[in-house]
Specification:
By secondary structure, the chain is an alpha/beta fold. The chain folds into two domains: 12-243, TIM Barrel, CATH 3.20.20.370; 250-329, Immunoglobulin-like. Helix content is 23%, strand content 25%. The protein is built from seven helices and 17 strands. The strands form four sheets. Strands 2, 3, 4, 7, 8 and 9 form a six-stranded parallel β-sheet that branches. Helix 4 (131-139) links the parallel strand 5 (119-121) and strand 6.
Length: 337
């Protein structure tokens, strides 16, 4: 009988996140209220060099729309959202501009939001996922990088190439495709996948139909995620999912002893990267059937409730730190052994 770490938090089957590139203030018109309505957070990618300014970048379709200010970004953080760095200039990152686009942008954004930034999001296309960029991301303290590759993410995947699904009205030629509110959901359910949708600023009609969806399409997507996902989907910001990835990967369960009435374990965190913001894990443990009548867990001598999820299998979620001891046993015995 063993203690194991669940692939996803709370024992969920699959995961859903959504990101909004550029962090435009018009998100307050439809996207932010919609997230409040449906009850899960979003995530914005900030062009730091234009923080709080009207967009002026090349021939962008979003020129003339205003980027969120530090105060607005703090507001959405308080709503449970996440914030990532989308570079300083939204141009191709060269060896010469690494410091500006990644280090200085990260520093300025952290000062503006008064919180840490652990995610880089590639601007433009995957040109900015080049080796020299990802190497610098690691050097400057990022814990992950998001691409524009349309694919799922899984518990074992590389965290410096995180995939995102385009939530757009339709795609560019020559591979046209219409909006599909069910995109990647069944695949995520079947393979324990993590969907990260990306769009820009859904309004009455898409600002750029190859880069965005409408507000109505965004609502369809949310309704479909929740109706299809039910109790099996975990909706979370990328920072929390990324943290769970790292906590799970760097955790090692050590069995201390088993007896007729108690099982004792120790959790070791081996070389956990600095700056992981969310430090909780979900565990599952197999126990004798008699222990399931009123299951209890002790974490460093503090009682914690557990849930019976199937015969002889208990599940619990808890904050963890290096060296914590976990005891599973019959309630009547407590910590008396």
């Amino acid at each position: 009988m063993s203690l194991s770490i669940a692939p996803w938090k709370y024992g969920k089957q699959w995961v859903y996140s959504i990101t909004y590139d550029e962090a435009l203030t018009d998100l307050y018109r439809f996207a932010v209220p919609m997230h409040e309505q449906f009850g899960f957070p979003g995530h914005v990618e900030v062009v730091v060099g234009q923080l709080g300014e009207v967009r002026r970048i090349g021939t962008s379709s979003y020129n003339g729309y205003r980027h969120m200010s530090g105060e607005e970004l703090q507001d959405i953080l308080h709503r449970g959202w996440g914030v990532g760095n989308h570079s300083w200039t939204h141009t191709i990152i060269t060896h010469e501009t690494l410091d500006l686009e990644l280090r200085q942008a990260k520093d300025k954004l952290e000062q503006a939001i008064e919180a840490s930034v652990i995610l880089f999001c590639s601007p433009g296309d995957n040109t900015n996922m080049a080796d020299h960029v990802l190497e610098a991301c690691r050097k400057f303290g990022y814990l992950g990088a998001m691409s524009l590759t349309d694919a799922l993410n899984r518990p074992e995947d590389e965290l410096f190439w995180i995939n995102r699904t385009a939530l757009h009205d339709h795609y560019y030629a020559p591979f046209f495709s219409a909006f599909d509110p069910f995109r990647n959901i069944l695949y995520a359910e079947k393979t324990r996948g993590w969907i990260i949708d990306y769009c820009h600023c859904p309004l009455e009609t898409p600002i750029h139909p190859n880069k965005d969806c409408s507000a109505d399409q965004l609502q369809q997507r949310f309704e479909t995620i929740l109706s299809e996902g039910g109790d099996s989907v975990w909706c979370a910001v990328p920072e929390e999912v990324l943290s769970y990835h790292l906590m799970r990967r760097h955790s090692r369960v050590e069995t201390l002893k088993h007896s007729a009435t108690q099982h004792h374990y120790r959790l070791n965190l081996d070389s956990l990267p600095h700056g992981v913001p969310y430090r909780s894990l979900t565990f599952e443990v197999q126990v004798p059937a008699a222990w399931c009548r009123d299951p209890k867990i002790w974490i460093n001598n503090q009682a914690l409730a557990a849930t019976l999820v199937r015969p002889r299998t208990l599940r619990f979620t808890t904050d963890v730190e290096d060296g914590i001891e976990i005891v599973v046993g019959e309630d009547s015995y407590g910590q008396s052994e």
